Amino acid sequence: MRTIRFLLQKEFRQIFRNRSILVMVLVMPVMQLFILPLAANYEVKNINLAIIDNDHSSYSQKLISKITASGYFRLTGYVFSYKEALHLIEEDKADLLLEIPHNFEKNLVRENSEQLFVAVNAINGTKASLGSVYLNSVIRDENNDIRLQLVAPARFQSQPMVEIASSNWFNPHLDYHLFMVPGILAILVTMIGGFLTALNIVKEKEVGTIEQINVTPIKKHHFILGKLIPFWVLGNVVFTLGLIVARVAYGIVPLGNIFLLYGFIWVYLLAVLGLACWYQRIVTRSSRRCSLCSSL
Amino acid sequence: MLPAWMKSFTHWPAVQNAANDMKQLYTFIRKEFAHVLRDRKTLLILFGLPIVQILIFGFALTNEVRNAKIVIYDQAQDVASQQLISKIEASRYFDIAYAVMDHAGIEAAFKKGDIRLAVIFPQGFNNDLLHTHHAQIQIIADGADPNTATTLTSYITSIIQDYMAAQEPFQISPQIRYLYNPQLKGAPNFVPGVMSLVLMLVCVMMTAVSIVREKETGTMEVLLVSPFSPLMVIISKAIPYLLLSLINVTTILLLSTFVLKLPINGSIPLLFAESTLFIITCLTLGIFISVKTSSQQVAMLISLMGMMLPTILFSGFMFPVENMPLPLQLISNIVPSKWYYNIVKAIMIKGLGFSAVWKETMILAGITVVLLFVSFKSFKIRLS
């Protein structure tokens, strides 16, 4: 036990002496939690839309203003042919194009139905499917408005209708931060735990001090424990910092038992640190180690 | 052999110097190759990384929603609800995990974690539908993952509406066509992304580290006092990585064509030419970092944190750039991989020609020239 205590003392001294580690531990979580949720936002809004309006009728104008007013779309092109609109998509100036056919209003009123043509740049599948879903729902909404105008609502519906009421649990406003912040916390703890431990041990090898340790009566498990415990503590510090930032900046609090959460972090950190220790056995130079860590 | 009239030129000192330089350069490039090839483990990572990333992204990471597990709480248990349930079950998007018997069961199912959606049929569903012509279905999605929740809700809504198929009057039906990627696969998006990521990693980090290592071990001094020009030292460092990166590009393209079945729609020579330009940009970036730093660790951390993270964040292949706050959008413009990603997308997926990517090409070339100039200016040929 005494050996481990001295080793721990040495490790902690080395950590506190090394400014860059302290900066990494204290500043990185805060920076990442502030910047990443801003930048890494999967939420699909600001979809660039090009419209080809061949009809120029009151209905088509209403449809267009409804779409642009929905807040999800940015009208970036109002063009006159499919070719021009496709060109906008090729240049990445538009993600979606909506073609309103000639005689849209006339056909809708006379023939009871009409089609619209939508083409989506589907290279990014998520964005494409969400974009078309949004556009679809705006069109459906507008369709209902038109229907209300044209048909006097009957007191008794003649056709069976199913109404769908949907709601989202756990995140009623579909706030993307709720999804991102816990993910970033997990990445942070892994990065700090894995990265720092591995770098630290490899450094000992590179500088050559590991040989001195090898010739002392320090046992293998002493050495590994001496390395593990400080970084395990650091991991906990980072996690706590992250929780505080999440609480202050985003108002996200763990709803479950916070002690259980810490229990899991303790076990998880052990796993990450174990992985890092195993790594340093196979890899001797820090350049390789970094690329391995990052590729994980 | 050279013709006789040219032979006379070879005796001129300038020509002889040039020939000498070429020979020296060749020797140095051979030395660098030996360095790279000797280091088996690094080599393994160099070539293994793109393969692993393509396979991981190709098979593990898909944004496609398929076989999402849902639960059903059917209070009605009548003809209409059973028909709807079998219709939902038949679609390839949903897997009905089990039926729950009360509201508490729904919450328990969500908390167990693998359930994405719950569908609730109220009592007397069929009765309502037949007699009042108006029935309700409730859908509850797990909002913890907002995008999946939205997508699933809309899928299930369209399945239910399809079932009703009641031709309402004055129906506007949008016909949707997915351009470039009709099956909404993940590959067309991430193959260009992985290409820019891997090239960035290999070129920037490896060059920076290999030059700084020479500084750290002190062999740089030997090179500086030799008659060999410092510029040539740098060029000979960069050339092996240029070749290795081109091999990497070829591997990625072969994998994506034959394993992921993603054909190259545009011109292959153009794609390679643009890739070479991007590789050169990355190499100059690596040189720039190596000029500014003096230890391997720092060089590595800078190239990892300063290059990898911006590439992932700002190239637009993971996260949509247009959603970011304006300052971050402006920053994204100086990230070279963003432009390369756009170029690869345009050539490989959209099948466009040079006329579509000349602007991006100019920007990449501009970044390269600026970086070269700056690092040339601050390259120290004297020891401090």
How does this structure look, described?
- Chain A has 296 residues and is of the alpha/beta class.
- Chain A is built from eleven helices and five strands; from the N terminus they run ααβαβαβαβαβααααα.
- Chain A has helices spanning 2-17, 19-39, 58-69, 82-90, 104-111, 125-150, 177-207, 209-215, 220-250, 258-282, 286-295, and strands at residues 47-53, 73-79, 96-100, 113-121, 161-169.
- A four-stranded mixed β-sheet of chain A has the order 2-1-3-4, with helices on both faces.
- By secondary structure, chain B is an alpha/beta fold.
- Chain B has 15 helices and five strands.
- A four-stranded mixed β-sheet of chain B has the order 2-1-3-4, with helices on both faces.
- The two termini of chain B are 48 Å apart.
- Classes of the chains: A alpha/beta (296), B alpha/beta (384).
- At the A-B interface, α2, β4, α6, β5 and α7 of A face α3, β4, α7, β5 and α8 of B.
- β4 (113-121) of chain A pairs parallel with β5 (171-179) of chain B.
Please describe the biggest sheet of chain B, giving its number of strands, its sense, and whether it closes into a barrel: 4 strands, mixed
Strand content of chain A: 5-15%
Tell me the structural class of chain A: alpha/beta
Helical amount of chain B: 55-70%
Strand % of chain B is: 5-15%
End-to-end C-alpha gap of chain A: 35 Å
Q: What is the count of helical runs of chain B?
A: 15
Q: Give the SSE order of chain A as H and E letters.
A: HHEHEHEHEHEHHHHH
Q: Give the terminus-to-terminus CA distance of chain B.
A: 48 Å
Q: How many DSSP-defined strands of chain B?
A: 5
Summary, kept brief:
The complex is a heterodimer of chains A (296) and B (384). By secondary structure, chain A is of the alpha/beta class.
Notable features of this structure?
heterodimer; A: 296 residues; alpha/beta; four-stranded mixed sheet; 11 helices; 5 strands; B: 384 residues; 66% helix
